[in-house]
Amino acid sequence: MRVIVQRVKSSTVLVEGETIGSIGKGLNLLVGIAATDTEAELNWMVRKCLDLRLFPDETNKPWSKSIVELQGEILVVSQFTLYGDCKKGRRPSMSRSASPEIAENLYNSFVEKLRSSGLRVETGKFGAMMQVSIENDGPVTLILEREAD
């Protein structure tokens, strides 16, 4: 599983010109699911996203608060291209990405586990062509990866 974590001032996702998800201060998560991913990778990633200290505290001390401590918002967007392999040829291979049926189930489970934290969690639309606006704060962008054991 791969997640691009971006600390944002705001983020919005549109499908066919309609806003379907929008947040203020928080995290934008671009989520890629590999064919080998299981609940174990999913659970690890949920904890990591919720517990990472990516926000300053009230005194502006950096890296002091997690999204949970901040009570921020999360926008989750599925992005199978995170497993695109560009080593050969001119077209990326998506062979490491999970099939849509498997990926959608794991993606939905990931979102529900994030929601169980009590935070406001918005999403894109799985499998749709989306336009994502991200106002990166910092900028802070991290790549999280957890491969199946």
Gist of the model:
The protein is 22% helix and 38% strand.
How does this model look, in words?
This protein has 149 residues and is α/β, with parallel strands linked by helices. 22% of the residues lie in helices and 38% in strands. It has three helices and eight strands; from the N terminus they run βββαββαβαββ. It has helices at 39-51, 67-70, 100-115; strands at 2-15, 18-23, 26-32, 53-55, 65-66, 73-78, 120-123, 131-145. Strands 1, 2, 3, 6, 7 and 8 form a six-stranded mixed beta sheet that branches. Strands 4-5 form a two-stranded antiparallel sheet. Helix 1 packs parallel to helix 3 (100-115). The longest helix has 16 residues, at 100-115. The chain is globular and about 50 Å long.
Jot down its keywords.
globular, 6-stranded mixed sheet, 149 residues, 3 helices, alpha/beta, 8 strands
